[in-house]
Amino acid sequence: MPSTEFRQHIANLATQLQGKALNADLETWLNQEHGINSDTYQQVKAQCERGVSEGWLCQYEGGGLRYGRIFKPSEDLAGFSVDVVDMENIAGPHHTHTNGEIDLIMPLEGDALFDGHAAGWMVCPAGSSHKPTVTQGRALVLYLLPDGKIEFT
Questions:
Q1: Average pLDDT of the chain, as a whole number
Q2: How many whole angstroms separate alpha carbon 104 and alpha carbon 85?
Q3: With 0-12 CB in 10 A as exposed, 13-18 as middle and 19+ as buried, what is 55?
Q4: Per DSSP, what are the bridge partners of residue 117?
Q5: Which domains does the chain have, with CATH numbers?
Q6: What are the start-end ranges of the H helices in 18-146?
Q7: pLDDT average, residue stretch 90-118
Q8: Least CB-packed of 15, 78, 140, 150 within 10 Å?
Q9: Is 99 left (phi over 0), alpha (psi -120 to 50) or beta?
Q10: Angle 39-54/4-17 helices, nearest 10 degrees?
Q11: 3-class DSSP assignment, residue 95
């Protein structure tokens, strides 16, 4: 089970995101304020790694990747759901971000890239879509989805 400390880290971050447009400006802000050298990034990555090793994170497997929703949308998470995917040199299923998506990319092995992005934050605006792809290694990717909405195509 995820720790209350982990949920609190995500809740603190989510409240800072509340009401912000999911766009390039938010991506820049996240990487400046909560980027790879920040306590936020380090704490979330450590919690995610622990969750994978303890088996409460990425507990499902399909199509060569491991995944799992750890928190449903809720008020304390500013309406975001939280999912984590463990991917190694693979493309996941194509999907549309109904209300947008905020991704935290956490390389584990090699110089893993997620959709061409190195460690840090990536923001996808509402209505965007992609086939999420990790290359050059293995990474965990934490997804914050407004209202938990995602549409697989």
A1: 95
A2: 10
A3: exposed
A4: 114
A5: 4-152 (2.60.120.10)
A6: 24-33, 39-54
A7: 96
A8: 15
A9: alpha
A10: 140
A11: strand
